[in-house]
## 1
Amino acid sequence: MSAFTTEDLFKIMRECAGEEEAVDLSSAAADQEFALLGYDSLALMEAISRVERGYGITLPEETLGDALTPAAFVAAVNTAIADRVPAAGAA
Amino acid sequence: MTAERPLPVALLLPGQGSQHPLMATGLYGYEPVFTEAMDEFFDAAGPEGGPLREDWLAERPATELDHVTRSQPLLFAVDLALGRLVLSWGVRPAALLGHSIGELASSVLAGVFSTRDAVGLVLDRVARLAKAPPGGMLAVAASTAEVEPYLSGDVVVGAVNAPRQTILAGPDGPLDKAGRALGEAGFVCRRVPSLSAFHSPLLEPACRGAAERFAAVPKAAPSVPVHSAYTAAPLTRADIDDPSFWARQPVAPVLFWPALEGLLATGDHLLVEVGPGQGLSQVARRHPAVRRGTSTVVSLLPPRPGPPEADRAAVEAAAARIAGAGSPTARAATPRAATPRGTPSSAPAV
């Protein structure tokens, strides 16, 4: 089971855009580029910043690269969370 | 496939921040209508036309494209030429909405100013603005209310692009200070490509005298409603006849989001961005009417700089989407090769 899900990301994205709850980011949105979902690099930077603070991780620079999709973002976060565990000395 | 009731088309024309080297140059010499419109611009620009054209077509322009003397005239020209291209397909827009310099381009498309007069006004504007003190613009992922405590006499809200995308403008020092304070408070900021503090009082002295130039040219009623991002309402005859309304545009804040809301409050539209990049498309995709799918966004150019083929493919795809949405389009299946006037001293990069 993933520590960070697409739903977690969509919740953060909605907060970043200042959108009302009614906004629907369907599961199909996971594989669309952020740009096509209305998230420019500024909104994406904010989402990354919120995730980094919320999960105590540092995402690699290339997370901000071109053609990024929510699915790829979620995968990058889960990789960073997995890497964090041994460093934190957790069992 | 044709929609039962085609959505009315609204053209969105981007402004400062959307420029990039070689923007839309893949269409030059390829799309005849676009090429002719660009050549008309360079011709109308007189002695400035040659250097503008060279820098537009250069991978490394002699004067960088973020400089006011390049960004403003070339954005104006590219927006206008792309608008003319879409009109040439038989698309009859129901509304126009421009951001910053894009509003002047919309006014030319709507016939308020002649192309030649408008080019003179744009060049007069940039000659004045080039003398303004250096400054910049900062995009902040925050609402206008959230940035309020970080404003000062010099640093103001230059543009309201979306509910949580506010652009600050001001002189470099105070703007950097505001940016640091915002960053410490957890707000994400990014510099907008601009070497001038557009839409801030810093440009006020430089704009003095511009009104006389606007007063001196004939102005016609727009053939299509032009939604102004300065009043967040369609241009009125009073706006059009007021020279200071136009002269102050580089100083006044751009209320893009309120203007977009005003436009979409008149009904759903097929929003077609005619300019480099997809900045306004991305903003428009945040609008509830686009989110729920009743309004749609089409961008004429790719989201980021690429090879000439990418510009061409993007235009092709946009034309198909506009036709698919039921707008009458009489686009030639394959554009004939057009020959730009004169020989470029620096060909577009492949």
## 2
Amino acid sequence: MADTSTVSSYPSTLPRPGGEQAALEAVWASPRSWRIVTDVNNTVIGGFYVGTAMLFFLLAGTLALLIRLQLAVPSNTFLSQETYNQIFTMHGTVMMFLFAVPVVEAMGILLLPQMLGARDQPFPRLGAFAFWAYLVGGLVFFSTLFFDLAPSGGWFMYPPLTSSRFSPNIGADFWLLGIGFIEISAIAGAIEIIVGVLRTRAPGMTLDRMPMFAWTMLIFAGMIVFAFPAIILATILLELERAFGWPFFIAAKGGDALLWQHLFWFFGHPDVYIIFLPAAGMVSMIIPTMAGTPLVGYRLVVVALIATGFFSFGLWVHHMFTTGIPALSLSFFSAASMAVSLPSGIQVFAWIATIASGRLRWTTPSLFILGFLFIFTLGGLTGVMVAMVPFDWQVHDTYFVVAHFHYVLVGGMVFPLFAAFHYWAPAFSRRALSERLGKWTFWLMFGGFNIAFFPMHLTGLMGMPRRVYTYPAVMEWGVLNMVSTMGAFLFAAGIALFLIDLARNLRPDASNTAGNIWNGGTLEWVHNRVYGARSIPIVTSADPLWEQPHLARDVDAGRYYLPGSITGRRETLVTSPIEAAPQYLLRLPGPGWTPFLAAIFTAAFFMLLTVKAVTPALISGVLAVAMLVVWMWDSDPKPLEPVDIGGGIKLTTYASGSLSHSWWAMIVLLLVTGSLYLAYVFSYLYLWTVSPQFWPKPETLAPVASAVLSAFLLVSGSAILVVAGRVLPRRSRSGHAFELLTGLAAAMLLAALIAEVSAQSQAGQRPATDIHGALVFTAAFLQGQMALPILVMAGFVIGRSLGGRLGLERRVIFDNFSLLYHYTIGQSLLGLLLVHGFPRLAG
Amino acid sequence: MSAAFEGIRPLGDLLRLFIAPAIWFAHLGAVYAAEALICAGPPRSHGDTMSWIVFLFTAAALMCLVILTVRTLRPGDRVPPPSGQTSAWFRRITLLLAVLSGSGVIWTALPTAFLPVCSSAP
Amino acid sequence: MRHARSFTAIVASSVMLAGCGRDMQSMLAPKGIQAEQIAGLAWLLFGFGIFVLAIVIAATWLAIGGSARSRRILAQESTVFALGIAFPVVTLSLLLGYGVWLTRALLDTGRDQNAVSIEVVGEQWWWRVTYLAPGGTPVASANEIRIPVATPIAFKLRAADVIHSFWVPSLGGKVDMIPGRTTHLRLTAERPGTYRGQCAEYCGGAHALMALEVVAMPASEHAAWLQRAAMPARAPQSDIEQRGQDLFLAAGCGACHTVRGTAAAGTLGPDLTQMGARRSVGVDTMPLTRDNVVRFITDGQLVKPGNLMPEFRFLQPSELDALAAYLLSLKATDPDG
């Protein structure tokens, strides 16, 4: 790469042809007024996304103030017991699911393309869909509070409290369907981010030069892929139990309440780091700018991020230290909790080293970062404390833990986020935020936070449990609680001041921004518009604006790659995952109604299902699928002749196989479904260890022959689809062998599913009778969950083939369908092996 | 200019980073599953069984980490010459992760020396 | 350094709090062997936390405004390695080792053949207590647990409906009560006294009000008390008590409550055979007085929202008087025994 460090000749020559920039602007122009909802560009959607997440922050924060008012004095009657229980449940749920994860995801959608030198995210419509689904779903979910329909089982929703017996109201269903659905939108965002970070970086931005925020978002998205499926499975199981009586968590029928805790915390603990890592990434971006020096220990920080990504998956049992699990098991997880504090230590001292190697400017972002360092370190230290098993036996589920995780989450994520708002505002707004107001905001928030939460360590040590709506005066927790309440209002005052600052100074603008007022070194600080930079630069260092003089000017003049739109559409460069070498030109879709409508109908499907309006729900579901089909119809545009992006580099406009960015997205999606299925396999085996007496004797099981039949159907289906791939027509239409084979393959999958379900029914298995039956039919349910989209996709593939939009060259849709299909066959075979084989092995 | 972008390496280098922490996770999962299975079975004295299992798993995990370290330090002839500094960078990170994961594996195994099997909270 | 000072000040004030008399539910004022061991660990951890926090604050301070030399040292990658990896590996190894050792010690503490066995079942939102004397008949009670001092107590913990968690901070850590499982907890009180406990796992509705009291008494007194408690309820001694008993049976209280020796044998609610000897009414929501007993009978949903007992509003004041008198009379003959 040495030859690119001194750019002697630029990829594009000056002067640029007149009208080139105007054409680029026209292609990327956002729809006007209310039609803005049809826009899919990451800057617009990202802005909405951050704004919506902040709305939920304010709403959930208001709930927190109500909680603090109720607890300010002993035996308070400000809120009733039931209202309080709904409010604390919603506070936790909204903060975790509707604020914390979405807001960092939103920051990624907003910032990453600019930072990486891309024009947009690789799947703009998927991003728009994820956002609208989240907005609508989130608002409906929150509004349940106003109808006394909100869940009251805690954000952790432990059964059996949340089972239909102890929570007959539909509040719990709103939680399960609403949150499950919003998780799916989070996964969509994660797929977008992974593919975006790995495949749309500016040429030359090798992984070791990538901005640290992009690294954290990559790990963040990877963690979502493996963590969220666990809770999606858990919500599926609990909803199946509530709706149809499948007894996953009912001890009398062989279920186990602890299964939920395993699944929930397998998601829940990584989730803390899912929230923290992007914030740490923001810190790693802001400190170097404010200290005016590159990040010290870039390598070590990457090591820390990867280690955190893995180690955080080995901690889930530390939320279950008091459940009576053998002490040795607890100690394994205690050790893992120690291990995960190492990466945080590395990052903290890398940041301090960066401050030491430069000169820290006293700006608002700097203050928030220093506040973060103090609060987060304290939260980390109490984290080490609660990781000690005996200590946790005392403080578990007390206010000590409440203090601990607010130090970690507010300190570790909200303070960096506010630093980020102040820091990046000038990249998107005509005016920067006020430094004077910002400093006031900081001191109010910092003071308020510590006054509110530090005393909670003490109330916890003095014996106050969590989730209590009141406490008697004799306990003498009153003074500390009053102090906490005052601190909470001080903190809220800081937030209010921030809102005033926003109202006075935030003026989002697509083309005319305040710009690089901090002298930042990364690409988001070149002149960015909705389409990112005017031309896509060659990057030769981690801080290109510092190391490559005139880069900002040259980029803006259009001297680098892709200074205009070549094909007359929105475009971005796809580059190789490690070296970021240009690979092909990706044509991106523009505004359209389908993502918006698909999101609305999907949200309607879930919400109507919750209130048991089955017919309208099904109609919405069909409409949502229809919107998706319309949306996908004009995806995968047909290959054009290779184009010149500048510098003599000729790129194709089409890629299939592992070169294609959509292949990568499909692989990530398969990792998601694979994780979901593994969570099911874990549940099956786990429940067997708890109640093996419910597993039938081998002779009463469904006959082996039925399993062999299903397996045969599945394998033939796979073979048929392989043949279909072989006969994929070149161009001219002759016969319909391809369509027939594809349809046949889909039918085989369906037949195998039907064969399995009927064999199990004939063997006397019933899902609601006992845990074994429930698990057997869950396997079938998960199969059906895959078969349904496969049927739709098969129809889509056939339709495209008939419509002349699928052929030997233009084959990405078929390739992705094949990936999903063969994966599903594999999953089905594993399911057959488990359901038919395991009882025979164990019996 | 285009010559600079020709050395496209597969994803192997990136995935290689994940091997060491994945070994750590596999080790944790294996010893936890072993204890869960032993304690789900009929009650008898398990002390020795568990100690041996943990010892074997730990030895295997550390062995894997050592192999990874050695292979990272000496990439051998099969690997084409690294393109610039990126490869060295990946190697350093792989090694550091191996060190961290090794500490984690040892920490996980440590409690087995002190605690009885299947005995729950006081 | 200002932060470090305020931190120490607050921790110091917590020491003073721990020294005061209102510490019936504080882990900083341990009154049992297990709680003392954990409190020792807690102070060690607080010390460790202050130490590390001080290092981080000092390093940040020096990084911002320290001498050129100290900043040069801090800015090196090797310093990051030393402070961020080497130092934690050493200190955390020590901590982990100590934690595991202490866990082992706690597992062994009170593992005694002669331990007194008590079963506690968590129900929404009260505690069903059964004293399981070896050989003797089980003695049922509720919401108040009397234990002998300096004797290991083996609690068998179960849940009747949802998950609860049994926790008496003065005596030791908590253990969850999980439907379908039996969990165990061993505690040993070292001094006589009354220790408050509370459900620590959110169990819906009135979770906040699900408290209990552990009364630790000298072993000989405890034996005598248990003997009396095993006897049938004290018979009514006066007209008003008799009227109360008649009402109790006529109003159907016996469908849910047991008063041993009478026709009342319901098991849905707490056993009331010793109700007059308890210290509180409504699961520690109110002190045991005549007025509070009446209040619970007529306005139980106000006192403890969501509890299963219907509100007996149709009873006349005189009837309530009689009922309260009867209930308060339900205690073993020697009230201080």
